[in-house]
Amino acid sequence: MKKTSNIQINERLSTSGFRFTPQRQQVYDVLVAKRDHPTAEEVFIRAKRQMPEISMATVYNCLDALVRSGLARQVTVDRGAARFCPNMQEHCHFYCDGCHRVFDVDLPEKDSSAVPVPRGFRVDRFEISIHGNCPDCASSGK
Amino acid sequence: MKKTSNIQINERLSTSGFRFTPQRQQVYDVLVAKRDHPTAEEVFIRAKRQMPEISMATVYNCLDALVRSGLARQVTVDRGAARFCPNMQEHCHFYCDGCHRVFDVDLPEKDSSAVPVPRGFRVDRFEISIHGNCPDCASSGK
DNA sequence: AATTAAATTTAGAATTATTCCAAATATTGA
DNA sequence: TCAATATTTGGAATAATTCTAAATTTAATT
What is the pLDDT of residue A5? Predict the structure, then answer.
């Protein structure tokens, strides 16, 4: 869990037109500390431990700033709350229908271009989410 | 736009433990009539034209029954309302960030197994969503 | 065709997740 | 330091969905 230095997150934010604030640092630290794809509410609860005054609205604002700055991703594996992920490498998400945990799954490089989009469409990004059961749940038969 | 016969939808529903009702037929007909990935609310508005008494709660119930019976899919391309799709062939979705329309994109067979899920994980299904611009929006520079 | 048990429909209330708002505060650059 | 602008905050507002309980409908059985 290598911590991105303050300099780096500061620079990322400011080149995207955002300010570097203690709250944004804190929210980012929460994401990096435990990469379990927390929801905004879970980030809020964790961030409050170090910064009791932080508000939910700020957590949403910070997460949005981090996503727009390329420091985190918003993950949409199911209906329900959005989840957040500081892993910026190309990867996809496995959503366990048993325990509702989300796992990162690495993607081979070539997959990026494997989807045959018809001509005229301009692809910006793509997201693959896999649903099923994680090893724990698969073996206990959920 | 071939219409699945009543017999077929009836059978699909009942083998999944659901009853065949006029509302479920109507909701299914709406999906098949215009395959533009409507939200529950859009389905509601369209269904009301033929069946003015139908309620929003029923639309949600019917969509759920159709999805669980394998007659439709719930599509989650972005935050915001879920969308519904009666195309049960293997395909993925292209979400245009310009006009917010959703397009079906066919997938080559092999893609199903292309994602290298670690051992122990049991894959049930997967979803690929592509974001970008459709030809209309790409050419007009949105 | 009448009876019945269970599923479905309905309207509205409740809930969940997120966005909006306006005032107070913090940050950045001059 | 000062001013301009962005951010934070708490609470209100909104959007999407789920829940509830009573009325109705369906499908199976007499």
Answer: 64
